[in-house]
Amino acid sequence: MSTIEAGRATADHLRLMTLMYGTIAAQVVGIAARLGLADRLGDAERASAEVAAAVDAHPDATTRLLRALAALDLVAETGPDRYRLTETGALLRSDRPDSLHTAVLLLTDPAMLATWARPDAAVRTGLPVFERVHGADFFTHVGADPRLSERFNAMMRQMTLPVARALPGAYDFSRFHTVADIGGGDGTVLAEILRANPTLRGVLFDTAEGLAQAATTLDAAGVGDRCGTVAGDFFVSVPGGADGYLLKSVLHDWDDARCATLLGHCRAVIPDGGRLLIVETVLPDRIDPADPTPYLSDITMLVNMGGRERGRGEFAALCARSGFAVVATHPLLGPYSLIEAVPAG
């Protein structure tokens, strides 16, 4: 074997070993989030003993945790037994507007991890395993647990905010008189759209649990007087009276049949000249190994919810099945795009 071949074999070995340790790496990040380690480090450089005292943890174990975090580039080793947050690690701070702290807490929660003890069943059957493990589907289980529900809503807000802020600059919402955000949660997306369009009115539609923090979000954005909230089940019906219907990160939670039902309800109330706006991760035409997150999200949807991430053609087929025709796709941030569709026929 040549030196180049040996080096490549070593790199391949390291790559696969890193993937094998992926579950442990996620747990290391989860421990840091649960301890509030990033908040304690803040902007300072600290010795591991200081960090251990601040988070009430064992000194030697904290040193070992900090070393692992440094190997993952979440903290930097600035000197012998001294550490500070990296730019990536700072996203674990709970006081940042772009924080991923709550997302880490939810995704490393025992209730979420329990389903990954049996992922093979999802691949063999094509069906989620969450209900087998917990006795209820994902949304029923989360809705019945106040702690998980709060974390889920907070995670959705944290992960939605960057896309919400990009939307008004990527699409002209001034063409509408009313936008209905279907499955819009606490209103993070709709608040940004209304704030950028002072004459626009909004309707925020979700379950009662999903709307729990909506009033706070809308009032904080100064748009509460232009946005009504409606609680309901979008598999039964959606509110009428809007000329723009928005679904952000909703369809990927469900299989094609359930999505067609939801989109059919939108088709039943949307007026001629109205627009359906779908904001989702759109899988590229060719797989990009440089960014595996859309595909890992796809497997997560399979295991936990029975949903899926989709490509452009799949969204077009889903819209056509429900009485819509896709007329444009507008790139947003990262893998996200806004798919614009009109009533067909």
From TrEMBL:
Keywords: Methyltransferase, S-adenosyl-L-methionine, Transferase. The keyword Membrane does not apply. Residues 17-92 form the O-methyltransferase dimerisation domain. Residues 118-324 form the O-methyltransferase C-terminal domain. SUPFAM superfamilies: S-adenosyl-L-methionine-dependent methyltransferases, Winged helix' DNA-binding domain. It holds the Pfam family Methyltransf_2. GO terms for molecular function: O-methyltransferase activity; protein dimerization activity. One of its GO terms (biological process) is methylation. The active site is at H252. This is Methyltransferase. It comes from Actinokineospora fastidiosa.
